[in-house]
């Protein structure tokens, strides 16, 4: 039994963080998956290899997707969100999104996770899903919604790709990149 199974709440996660502080990255690739009748889905071997024995947490993510993060990647983000002002709509919404719906998850002996029913409903998951590597996390999408989103993203990235390359090559600062994105969104 690992620390997530034997302890609940933030205290248990903090204990894990102190013993497993290395960040997990290189979660890349796109995979078609199927959820079985018990809401189980297998993680691709490529993801399991990157994750090793790191404890995992699942949370609601952007655009009705779900995110699976190693706890060592989630805790720094969680600490920053926890410092947001509790008495503002934005702070409260961010805190609820990141904490109220977060759930520790475990891989079974066959490399599968169980997606909790409330997460299935939030992401509108059906039998066929998409599982995407997003560098430091895995996202799970309703397959048809994901395909629609890809079409939208393709149009957006086509406009932004030169700026993305400049950012990647160090020819543009993150601030300049974000400013350009805001200006382009205002022109649409």
Kindly report the average pLDDT value.
87
Main sheet attributes: strand count, strand direction, barrel closure: 6 strands, antiparallel
Q: How many separate helices?
A: 8
The largest sheet has its strands arranged as 1-7-8-4-3-5
> How far apart lie the N and C ends?
53 Å
Beta-strand residue fraction: 15-25%
Write the element-wise H/E pattern from the N-terminal end onward: HHEEHEEHHEEHEEHH
Unreliable residue stretches: 1-20
Give an overview of the whole structure.
The chain is of the alpha+beta class. The protein contains 8 helices and 8 strands. Strands 1-7-8-4-3-5 form a 6-stranded antiparallel β-sheet. Helix 7 crosses helix 8. The longest helix is centred in the C-terminal third of the chain and has 26 residues. The N terminus is likely disordered.
Summarize the structure.
This protein is 49% helix and 19% strand. It is α+β, with helices and mostly antiparallel strands.
Features:
single chain, 188 residues, alpha+beta, 6-stranded antiparallel sheet, 19% strand
Present the secondary structure layout.
Layout (H helix, E strand, L loop, with lengths): L2 H4 L2 H11 L10 E5 L5 E3 L2 H7 L4 E5 L5 E5 H12 L6 H12 L2 E3 L6 E3 L2 H7 L4 E6 L4 E5 H26 L5 H13 L2
């Amino acid at each position: 039994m690992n620390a997530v199974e034997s302890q609940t709440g933030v205290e248990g996660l903090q204990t894990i963080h102190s013993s497993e502080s290395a960040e997990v990255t290189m979660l890349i690739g796109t995979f078609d998956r199927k959820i079985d009748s018990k809401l189980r889905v297998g993680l691709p071997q490529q993801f399991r290899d990157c994750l090793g024995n790191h404890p995992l947490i699942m949370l609601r993510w952007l655009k009705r997707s779900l995110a699976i993060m190693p706890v060592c990647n989630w805790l720094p983000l969680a600490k920053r969100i926890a410092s947001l002002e509790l008495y503002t709509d934005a702070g409260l919404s961010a805190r609820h999104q990141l904490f109220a719906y977060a759930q520790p998850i475990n891989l079974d002996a066959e490399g599968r996770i169980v997606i909790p029913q409330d997460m299935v409903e939030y992401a509108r998951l059906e039998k066929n899903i998409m599982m995407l590597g997003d560098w430091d996390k895995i996202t799970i999408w309703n397959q048809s919604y994901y395909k629609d989103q890809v079409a939208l993203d393709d149009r957006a990235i086509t406009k932004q790709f030169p700026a993305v390359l400049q950012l990647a090559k160090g020819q543009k600062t993150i601030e300049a990149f974000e400013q350009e994105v805001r200006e382009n969104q205002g022109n649409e």
